[in-house]
Design brief:
Bound molecules: S-adenosylmethionine
Number of domains: 3
CATH superfamily of the largest domain: Vaccinia Virus protein VP39
C-alpha cells in the first residue's frame, strides 16, 4: 500500500486529525484510513471510532466535555471517560511509577501531590474524576492499620484527610459533575460514619449525589465491587436530576479463560515452596473456621478481586495448570486484561509495579458505562430549553413581524 501523506492538508483538518487520533489512542494513519474505509464502504457521517476498546472499532457515542483526573493512578477513569467524549485537561498523581505509565499512555506527566496544588490552578472543567485513596477504608487496609496500631479512615490524618482536600477543590472549582470511586467498604466503614461525612460534605457543597456499588464482573471476568459516586451541581442541574446508573451489559458474561495468554512463561508458575506455604496457610484458616486462603480460579467463571498486593504471592487469583503441575499467577498483561485495559497500552514498569498499578485501578469499561449515563444527563440538561435550542435562552421580546 502506498504511503499515506497527511502533511499537505489544511491546518484545521490536520488539527482535527491530531485531536481525534490522540483522543482515540490510535495513530494518525490508522485514523485517516478508518475515515477513508468508512467513506468507501458507505458509512454514515463521520466515523467516530473507538480504536482501542477490545481491539475493535466500536462506535464512540458521547459528547465533547472536559475532565480532570485526580488521584489518577494509571488513568482508568480517564480511559473510560474519553470513550464517551471526555478530553482531559489536568491530572494529578504522585507515585512516580504510575506517572511513568500515565506518561507512556497519555503523553503527559501528571502533576504531583494534590495537597501542594492550589485548586485555583486547576483548569475549569465539566467533570471532576477522582478515585481517591481507598486504603484508609478498605477491609485489608483497616485490619492492617489496626494490627499496626495505626489510625484508619478519617482518623488516618495523612490519607483520610485527602477527601477533605478533594472537597476543597470541588468547593473552589465547582465542577458541574463529579465522579468518585472507592472500595465498597466505604459505605459501612466506622459504623457508616465515614460515609455519612462524605455524603454530608458533598450535600453541603450543593451536589445531588447518586451512589451505587457496581460489580465489574459483567464487563470483565473479575468479581470487583466498587462504589461509584456521581454528583451534579444543584445550582446548575436543579434538584430533580434525572440520572440512572447503567444497566448490566446484555449477553453472556466474560469468562476468565478469555483473558489468558495461550502460553505462559514458566516464571509465573508458583514454586513448590510458595505453593506448599499457601496450601498450609489455607488449611490452617479453614480449621479455624474462616475463609482466608488462595483463590483457585474457575476458568469458565470469574476471578476474585485483584488487589494491589498481588505481586507478593498472587494468591487471590491463581490459575490451575492441570494435575501434577503447580498453579501459576497472572502475567502483568493478563492482569491488565482482567481489569479491562486494552492490549495496545504498553506496560513500561516492572512486574511488581504493574501488578500494584492494575490492582489499584478502576475498570475502564465500567467507568465508560457510568460515563455514558452521565453524558445522557448532561445532554438532557443542555436540550431541556423550552424554545428547543441547545444553548440559547428564550428571548422575551420578539421583533414584530419576524420569526
Ligand atoms: C485508588 S488509586 C486510583 C487509581 C486510578 N483510579 C486508576 O484507575 O489507576 C489512588 C491513587 O491516588 C494516588 N495518591 C495518593 N495520595 C496522593 C496525593 N496526595 N497526591 C496525588 N496522588 C495521590 C495514589 O498514588 C494512587 O495511585
Amino acid at each position: 500500500m502506498p504511503q499515506l501523506l497527511i502533511r499537505d492538508i489544511p491546518p484545521q483538518l490536520k488539527a482535527w486529525i491530531d485531536e481525534k487520533s490522540y483522543g482515540l489512542r490510535t495513530s494518525q494513519k490508522e485514523f485517516v484510513l478508518s475515515v477513508l474505509t468508512n467513506a468507501w464502504e458507505g458509512g454514515e457521517g463521520l466515523p467516530l471510532f473507538d480504536g482501542v476498546q477490545n481491539g475493535t472499532t466500536a462506535p464512540m457515542d458521547g459528547m465533547p466535555f472536559t475532565l480532570v483526573d485526580l488521584f489518577a493512578g494509571i488513568g482508568g477513569m480517564r480511559l473510560g471517560l474519553e470513550r464517551v467524549g471526555g478530553r482531559c485537561t489536568f491530572s494529578s498523581e504522585w507515585d512516580k511509577y504510575s506517572q511513568k505509565t500515565y506518561q507512556a499512555w497519555f503523553g503527559e506527566l501528571p502533576e504531583g501531590d494534590i495537597r501542594e496544588i492550589r485548586p485555583e490552578d486547576i483548569p475549569d472543567h465539566d467533570v471532576l474524576a477522582a478515585g481517591f485513596p481507598c486504603q484508609p477504608f478498605s477491609i485489608a487496609g483497616v485490619s492492617k492499620k489496626k494490627s499496626l496500631g495505626m489510625q484508619h479512615g478519617f482518623k488516618d490524618v495523612k490519607q483520610g484527610a485527602l477527601f477533605f482536600h478533594l472537597a476543597k477543590v470541588i468547593e473552589i472549582k465547582r465542577p458541574p459533575v463529579i465522579l468518585l470511586e472507592n472500595v465498597k467498604n466505604l459505605r459501612t466503614h466506622d459504623k457508616r460514619k465515614t460515609w455519612d461525612v462524605i455524603r454530608k460534605s458533598l450535600d453541603a457543597l450543593d451536589y445531588i449525589i447518586f451512589d451505587r456499588i457496581i460489580d465489574a464482573a459483567s464487563w470483565v471476568p473479575q468479581h470487583r465491587e466498587r462504589i461509584f459516586i456521581v454528583g451534579f451541581d444543584r445550582n446548575l442541574f436543579g434538584s430533580n436530576v434525572a440520572f440512572e446508573f447503567p444497566e448490566l451489559p446484555v449477553g453472556p458474561p466474560p469468562k476468565f479463560r478469555d483473558i489468558l495468554d495461550r502460553k505462559s512463561p514458566e516464571k509465573y508458575t508458583l514454586t513448590d515452596h510458595l505453593w506448599n506455604y499457601l496450601q498450609k496457610y489455607a488449611a490452617k484458616h479453614k480449621a479455624l473456621g474462616n475463609g482466608f486462603g488462595f483463590g483457585m480460579t474457575d476458568l469458565d467463571g470469574v476471578s476474585r478481586t485483584l488487589s494491589a498486593r498481588y505481586y507478593k504471592d498472587g494468591s487471590e487469583v491463581l490459575i490451575p495448570q492441570g494435575k501434577g503441575k503447580n498453579p501459576r499467577r497472572l502475567s502483568p498483561r493478563e492482569a491488565a486484561r482482567l481489569m479491562g485495559f486494552p492490549d495496545e497500552l504498553p506496560i513500561v514498569v516492572s512486574d511488581t509495579q504493574a501488578y500494584k498499578q492494575f490492582g489499584n485501578a478502576v475498570v475502564p469499561p465500567v467507568v465508560e458505562a457510568v460515563g455514558r449515563q452521565i453524558v445522557q444527563t448532561m445532554a438532557a440538561h443542555l436540550t431541556r430549553r423550552p424554545n428547543g435550542c441547545l444553548l440559547k435562552k428564550s428571548s422575551r421580546r420578539q421583533v414584530a413581524g419576524r420569526h
